[in-house]
Amino acid sequence: MAQVKNNYQFEDMLQKHNLKKTAPRLRVLSMMYSKNTATSQPDLESVMNDIDRVTLYRILNTFEEKGIIHKVFDLNGTANYAVCHSDCKENHHHDEHLHFNCTACKNVYCINELNMPRLTLPAGFEPQAFTLYASGLCPKCSKKGAARVN
Amino acid sequence: MAQVKNNYQFEDMLQKHNLKKTAPRLRVLSMMYSKNTATSQPDLESVMNDIDRVTLYRILNTFEEKGIIHKVFDLNGTANYAVCHSDCKENHHHDEHLHFNCTACKNVYCINELNMPRLTLPAGFEPQAFTLYASGLCPKCSKKGAARVN
DNA sequence: AATACAAATGCAACATTATTGTATTTAGAA
DNA sequence: TTCTAAATACAATAATGTTGCATTTGTATT
Ligand SMILES: [Mn+2]
Ligand SMILES: [Mn+2]
Ligand SMILES: [Zn+2]
Ligand SMILES: [Zn+2]
Questions:
Q1: Of B98, B110, B104, which is closest to residue B141 (Cα–Cα)?
Q2: Where does Zn(2+) bind (chains A, B) (predicted)?
């Protein structure tokens, strides 16, 4: 599931976005592309504990601005970050897909293969974007039974 | 729009939920019922600045547990609280409605008059609840034109 | 009306998440 | 190799949320 990319490709990505190739950035990219779920800020911070917290925040903000990753708040309000698979451009995201929050393993999945329902709102409301969340059991956790944690 | 309730009714509400009638609780109820939008935690805290922050958190948690209010994270991850209009019971909410986040005035509206679309997810995912957000302009702000803030 | 006690509040301390400013380091261009 | 803008590291501070405990208070009971 996880997008497979090597270090050269990550370097290319940075170059294309006019970002310097630095070790912290490459590590963040590598980590996020190695997973098929979003990465929570706490996770990121504990895994990359040798990188300064502020640097992490700035890397994440930069990547988000550049359209490399998008931020998702899970159902507890925790910030999660996931790679963009849509053709997101600088300051112009197209990540209107469903986010699935597993109640057992807490992972957040981007469900790209599902188009958002366009809804009609009450008069006066002018919606510009929709965000849809679902919570429940992810494939791994539903297999193992509701009791156990992934 | 805002639900009109007087102090006696708030006292009744507390009593029905086996909660003591205290000034902080009544003030929180009064504030939340006077609006037709959700109340952000920062707002609540600045308006009720004479009530201890911890007390506010505890009141909000209690009300949420009792099914009086529900928590909504807006698109910035800020906690907002709104009164429940569905028949929410203790530890059993039914607030599966759309939340509209106005990009101009930042208000969060509960759109109860709209039923959630039941979606089919990829194999393996077992959704238990859906949460739908929309962002854009609310009626007030769309009238005034996109530039101006409410 | 006074008593008694559980519940609620207030206060202090602490934890986590996030932001801002600035000095130092470094990637990449010249 | 040198130079510089960009990026990182470090320090300080803000915002948000939690925990423990002493004090106060609502309400049931006498
Ligand atoms: Mn996503
Ligand atoms: Mn709501
Ligand atoms: Zn799971
Ligand atoms: Zn508005």
A1: B104
A2: 102, 105, 138, 141
**Two tokens at B136?**
């854009």
The contacts found for A87-96 with CB under 8 angstroms, 24 or more apart, are A90/A17, A90/A65, A90/A66, A91/A65, A91/A67, A92/A67, A93/A67, A95/A70, A96/A129, A96/A130, A96/A131
Specify whether the CB–CB gap between A100 and B127 falls below 8 A.
yes
Say what the pLDDT of residue B145 is: 66
Q: Is the CB of B57 under 7 A from strand D?
A: yes
Could you tell me if B121 and A102 are in contact, meaning their C-beta atoms sit under 8 angstroms apart?
no
Backbone torsions φ then ψ of A88, nearest 5 degrees: -80, 135
E-state strands within B49-145: 69-73, 79-83, 98-102, 108-111, 126-137
Q: What averages of pLDDT result for each successive group of 10 residues across chain B (150 residues)?
A: 82 97 98 96 96 98 96 95 87 86 95 83 93 94 66
Scan for tokens 């897909």, then name that residue. Answer: A97
* Cα(A21)–Cα(A9) distance, integer angstroms: 11
Single pTM value for the model: 0.89
* Structure letter (DSSP) for residue A86: S
CATH of domain B7-115+128-149: 1.10.10.10
Extract the tokens encoding A150. 């992934």
Residues of chain B in contact with residue A114, where contact means CB-CB under 8 angstroms, are 119, 121-122
Distance between the alpha carbon (CA) of A34 and the C1' atom of D5, Å: 31
Q: Can you point out the beta strands (E) in B7-125?
A: 39-40, 69-73, 79-83, 98-102, 108-111
